[in-house]
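Re: that backbone. Tokens:
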């Protein structure tokens, strides 16, 4: 019969310290954004400027059968002239680890303010789109996407 305690070796102590460090480094990135995080990101960009409705057509599926590849199409109604055009479009997701998904920049030379991408959604959540116009006005819309598989839940 063996009694007493067993001292960990130096190698075991280094391994344990490395695991603790890795867990601490990874754990914060596993937290998910929420509506407040999205609002904070938008506030960083535009302060408390009012946002209008309309002009933005945000096309996302109501139900995403695979959260790993969710198609997103956005189009902003604008003449895209030298004096009236879309400067930027920002997409945010309120249930992903980072709220900011993508930013598109436009000029009048683009001819049309439209873009398409695919994004990974961790769970059922809202996609928020903010469009900044050349005159400084802002427009916003959001759409909910229900993720059924491939994400972290429904």
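Recovered sequence:
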């Amino acid at each position: 019969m063996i009694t007493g305690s067993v001292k960990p070796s130096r190698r075991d102590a280094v391994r344990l310290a490395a695991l603790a460090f890795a867990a601490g480094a990874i754990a914060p990135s596993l937290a998910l954004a929420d509506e407040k995080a999205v609002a904070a990101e938008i506030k960083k960009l535009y302060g408390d400027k009012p946002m209008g409705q309309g002009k933005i057509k945000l096309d996302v599926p109501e139900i995403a059968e695979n959260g790993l590849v969710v198609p997103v199409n956005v189009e902003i109604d604008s003449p895209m002239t030298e004096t009236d055009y879309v400067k930027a479009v920002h997409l945010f997701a309120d249930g992903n680890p980072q709220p900011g998904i993508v930013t598109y920049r436009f000029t009048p030379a683009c001819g049309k303010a439209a873009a398409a991408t695919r994004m990974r959604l961790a769970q059922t959540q809202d996609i928020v789109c903010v469009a900044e116009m050349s005159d400084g006005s802002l427009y916003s819309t959001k759409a909910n996407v229900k993720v059924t598989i491939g994400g972290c839940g429904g």
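Confidence is low (pLDDT under 50) at residues 24-29. Residues 15 and 21 are 10 Å apart (CA to CA).
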